[in-house]
Amino acid sequence: MEKVKILAPTDFSEISVGGVRYALEMAVSLGAEVILYHVIVGGDNLFSTYEDLNPARPLLQIETCRLDKFVKEKLADYCSLVEIRQVVEIGAPHVNIVEKAEREAVDMIVMSTHGRTGIDHFLLGSVTEKVVARASCPVLTIPPIERRTSKAKQAESSGRVLVQPERRH
Q: Measuring CA to CA, which residue among 5, 41, 27, 151 is closest to residue 82?
């Protein structure tokens, strides 16, 4: 039986920590492997053919170290509980995430939403939204913690029960 694989993209933001932690919590309970994935924005069709000429190439080593530091500082409590594979690539985040999920035959992508609205959302779009629209596997989207917390408080005050996953911090 093959091990379950979860792809957990991160941009190193505090918001992305929530999505990655959620993926790691799922992995602990499922005995799954987590592919912690960071994409350096900088790929286009010209450079995909000539990867060595890509101006973002020198950033690979820097961003790989940054990902390692991110794991040690933000996710150290999971390192002994679950198999984490760290990968850094160059490209367009939404395209790379979908392609990585297909290449790795992951069972699920777990990623945070940044909660942009209005003009920011219109101009920047949403990497998560684009991944959801293109991925061939399930995509679990995790809202920012403050939004999850406010929903729980609203449910409490209205008398509804909202089940939250157990947190291991």
A: 27
Q: What is the pLDDT of residues 106-151, one digit of tens each?
A: 999 999 987 555 554 444 458 888 999 999 999 999 988 665 454 4
* Calpha distance 122→93 (Å, rounded): 17
Ramachandran quadrant class, 118 (left: phi over 0; alpha: psi -120 to 50; beta: rest): left
Residues contacting 155, CB < 8 A, separation 6+ = 161, 162
**Which residues make beta-bridge pairs with 40?**
90
For 3-52, how does the pLDDT look when each residue is reduced to its tens digit (9 = 90+)?
A: 999 999 999 988 899 999 999 999 999 999 999 999 988 755 545 555 66
What are 87's strand-pairing partners? 37
Question: Does pTM surpass 0.90?
Answer: no
Token readout for 118 is 């209005």
Integer Cα distance of 7 and 112 in angstroms: 12
**Residue given tokens 């293109």 in the structure block:** 134
